[in-house]
Design a protein that fits this description.
Family (chains A, B): Belongs to the PlsX family.
Mean pLDDT of chain A: 90
Oligomer: homodimer
GO cellular component, one term (chains A, B): cytoplasm
Strand order of the largest sheet of chain A: 3-2-1-4-11-10-5-6-9-7-8
Number of helices of chain A: 13
Largest sheet of chain A: 11 strands, mixed
Structural class of chain A: alpha/beta
Keywords (chains A, B): Acyltransferase, Cytoplasm, Lipid biosynthesis, Lipid metabolism, Phospholipid biosynthesis, Phospholipid metabolism, Transferase
Subcellular location (chains A, B): Cytoplasm
Helix content of chain A: 40-55%
Largest interface: A-B, 63 and 63 residues
Low-confidence stretches of chain A: 5-11
Shape of chain A: globular
Order of helices and strands of chain A: EHHEHEHHEHEEHEHEEHHHEEHH
Function (chains A, B): Catalyzes the reversible formation of acyl-phosphate (acyl-PO(4)) from acyl-[acyl-carrier-protein] (acyl-ACP). This enzyme utilizes acyl-ACP as fatty acyl donor, but not acyl-CoA.
């Protein structure tokens, strides 16, 4: 296995990120484009530690691409022979594709050769393999996928679980709350992230039995628990971490995506319906583009798989290079902030309290 | 109790709609404004049966308002002394406000004096009182709230349950599927509405145990069951009825509302950020207004409470008169199509099959 190419500046630890060369609709080109971008001084300037990047996958495919771009000496190439397809079931990928890029990458993170794995591949396979190879952190029963949602005034809200666990007990939900709170402290610098429980009303009597029990228990923790929140609060500035089971979280995320797509297509239809409105749209174009940028899900691409004994970040499968760079940045931030140690410590403190 | 003021044209039955004078943020003015509108020939032209309207509530408040508008002879006034506030708990409203407009209205629908009750008041109270006073239809365990969602190409999708039942068994969900299918047949004229189950992926292995069991059972019914659908499908043209529990449905609805509001405020901010884009927005104004109309939730205001032995329609509390007219139209359609009889018959056929 090639050693990551990096130099350590005194006192700082390195941030060593391995990316999956075969995940995503436009892989491997999109992945290589993103790797070129993260080699820029502008990207590096976000972090005090020095950065090292690698790509894992089929050597015969990736090696020529690295050479073409002239980055073969700056990006380590880690060989893996198998490729997990989007249609592979998680169990098939887990059992039958042990030399896939995700498997090899997860093992190298487990062994400490790399600090994090970033993949735009099959979400179910990534979660299943990561769980088996990396295991969960002490005190965490189930890892969760966390999703960052843009909010008003350039804010953002972390929602978890976004789809890994359809059925959750109140203990699972409380663990999600702890992990989400640690994440927002570590990566957004919040001192006491406000944690809300996704419910169908603000009153205590609302929701399922699991939700009601979770609310009571959350109020007894040291977390900055603010009570029930609703779907409309996801985009506001009143909550930082929204906790829910993976079924509800996934429906909420996909509903957001569907609403945004529906509104955009309706707007396009209206704006192109007459010459006058077309002219207006032309004049307002830069504003409409800024609007698109602001609500672009790519800006917040990179969903951390939280609760694993190692850092894994899932990029949207349809991500372009720029969005994939966001996912790599998420991984860098998590490593930089020692997120896994922080979560372990928080869970430990919670158990002792 | 005053008799509804109506004339019956030969062969047709009347549609007699009673509206709650005290429900909604802008009641009673908004309610009276809406009643003026539904008296117009344009509204009546939608139905072959003749229409009769009444308003239920405090006589001393409503009587002068009817007279002011000169419609005291065309709108029956039904007296009720109590008013249910938005902050009243459903159980308090149910037990302590037996002479409220909702209670009196529900009793008159039960007794056959009126065909439907329309209210923009407290949803929990409306559901609780309707359930106790009207009872559920044979074969229906729990009534559901159904919500109509706008979709591309001027289509629409009915989602239920939108919030009445947080926890549902597969039998409840199947009953929702039957009711939703009947509703779309009756009010939208679809011969075999496509029924989908809201899930977090299209594959059969996805979702909770209840969802998987429901999917298996739905496939065995006579319904036009198309399998799992996702949050993104709510706005498409591939499904007519989306079935889910009330927790998930409510989160989805409020997430839609939040997303739309967030996008609108972001767009406004960008469009007013420079003179050029302001000018563009001005030129595109009529297009932007048509866009707002198209995605305006008011257009689809009027959520039927399905499964009750009587027709009850809930309007959004923030509805304006025009949106409240939509809710009244929903009630008229349900009466006109004999919806409760249809549901009863479908459930009966399903049990016999």
């Amino acid at each position: 296995m090639p050693e990551p190419d990096h130099t350590t500046s005194e006192g700082d630890r390195d941030i060593r990120i391995l990316v999956d060369g075969h995940g995503g609709d436009s892989a491997p080109t999109m992945v290589l484009d993103a790797l070129e971008m993260v080699l820029s001084p502008k990207f590096a300037a976000q972090f005090s530690a020095s950065l090292a990047f690698g790509v894992v996958g089929q050597e015969e495919v990736l090696s020529p691409l690295l050479r073409e771009r002239g980055i073969e000496n700056r990006i380590s190439l880690v060989a893996a022979t198998d490729v997990i397809e989007m249609c592979d079931s998680p169990s098939h990928a887990l059992r039958r594709k042990k030399d896939s890029s995700i498997h090899v990458g997860a093992r190298l993170v487990r062994d400490g050769s790399w600090d994090a794995l970033v993949s735009a591949g099959n979400t179910g396979a990534l979660m299943a393999i990561s769980k088996v190879v990396l295991k969960t952190l002490p005190g965490i029963d189930r890892p969760a996928i966390a999703s960052m949602i843009p909010a008003v005034n350039d804010g953002c809200t972390l929602m978890l679980d976004a789809g890994a666990n359809s059925e959750c007990t109140s203990d699972h939900l409380i663990q999600f709350a702890i992990m989400g709170s640690c994440y927002m402290q570590a990566t957004e610098g919040l001192s006491a992230p406000r944690v809300g429980l996704l419910n169908i009303g603000s009153e205590d009597i609302k929701g399922t039995d699991v939700i009601k029990l979770t609310s009571t228990k959350l109020a007894e923790t040291d977390l900055n628990y603010i009570g029930n929140v609703e779907g409309t609060d996801l985009f506001g500035n009143d909550v930082d971490v929204v906790v829910c089971d993976g079924f509800v979280g996934n429906v909420a995320l996909k509903t957001m995506e569907g609403t945004a797509r529906f509104l955009a297509s309706s707007m396009r239809k209206e704006l192109t319906s007459s010459l006058v409105s077309k002219a207006g749209a032309l004049l307002a174009r830069s504003a409409l583009n800024r609007f698109k940028d602001r609500v672009n899900p790519g800006k917040y691409n990179g969903a951390p798989l939280l609760g694993l004994n190692g850092i894994v970040v899932k990029s949207h499968g349809g991500a372009d290079a720029e969005a994939f760079v966001s996912a790599i940045a998420v991984a860098c931030k998590e490593v930089d902030a020692n997120l896994t140690d922080r979560i372990t410590q928080s869970v430990q403190e919670m158990v002792e309290a």
